[in-house]
Design goal:
The chain is of the alpha+beta class and 201 residues long. The protein has one domain. 41% of the residues lie in helices and 26% in strands. It contains 4 helices and 6 strands. It has helices at 20-30, 99-135, 146-164, 171-186; strands spanning 2-15, 44-52, 58-62, 69-75, 79-91, 139-143. The strands form 2 sheets. It has a 3-stranded mixed beta sheet. Strands 3-4-6 form a 3-stranded antiparallel beta sheet. The mean pLDDT is 97.
Length: 201
């Protein structure tokens, strides 16, 4: 089982205003909602983990001299793909902004990008952690012959994976927890400078 980066797309939403304060207010109205809170923020990076395990991804070991035949199944393949969608603010026009305000807007957008890229990096690290967890799991099965024991062992391992990664431990919940932890650490990007200084005229 390996983890890998999948698709990484970026979309924008348009904000406008004659001052940074106006633009900031527009962002608060139009910005993407946080997956854990009802609050809107200037940007977001949503992650999705897609698990793919085929029949050929199992490795089997038969217990010597077992009767009925006993087999242990582990994963030798499979992928956990991390897809991300980043949403960023885009200024409709900066013609009414002062040079200082234009400079601040550029600085702010660059810092929002740093924050959202950090989410994407964190999701990929999470995918690696989860794939390592799955690689450490094993299933057992017995049967009248090796083939039926292998099928039972593969089913046992598959059931364990389904049970472990369901409910509060589901892949989507693990992503949400990752978002929460990263945002708590960075104060939603504030510690990275992703706050617009709307006081600049």
């Amino acid at each position: 089982m390996t983890s890998k980066q999948g698709s990484a797309s970026t979309k924008t939403y348009t904000v406008s205003g004659k001052t940074l304060d106006d633009i900031n207010k527009d962002m608060k109205k139009k910005g993407p909602p946080d997956p854990n809170e009802s609050k809107r923020y200037s940007g977001s990076c949503l992650g999705e983990l897609v698990l793919d395990i085929k029949g050929s991804d199992f490795d089997f070991a038969t217990t010597d001299g077992s009767s009925p035949v006993e087999v242990t199944a582990t994963l030798k393949g499979g992928t956990l793909t991390c897809n991300t969608t980043t949403t960023m603010p885009k200024l409709g026009s900066d013609k009414d902004l002062s040079d200082d305000a234009k400079k601040e807007w550029k600085r702010f957008v660059a810092k929002v990008q740093v924050h959202e890229d950090g989410h994407a990096d964190s999701y990929l690290k999470l995918a690696k952690v989860i794939s390592d967890e799955m690689n450490a799991m094993s299933g057992k099965g017995t049967g009248k012959d090796e083939r039926s024991a292998q099928a039972a062992a593969a089913k046992d391992l598959t059931d364990q994976i389904k049970k472990t990664y369901s409910g509060s431990g589901s892949l989507s919940e693990r992503i949400k927890d990752d978002v929460k932890a990263y945002d708590a650490k960075t104060k939603h990007g504030a510690t990275q400078g992703a706050v617009l200084d709307a006081s600049i005229p």
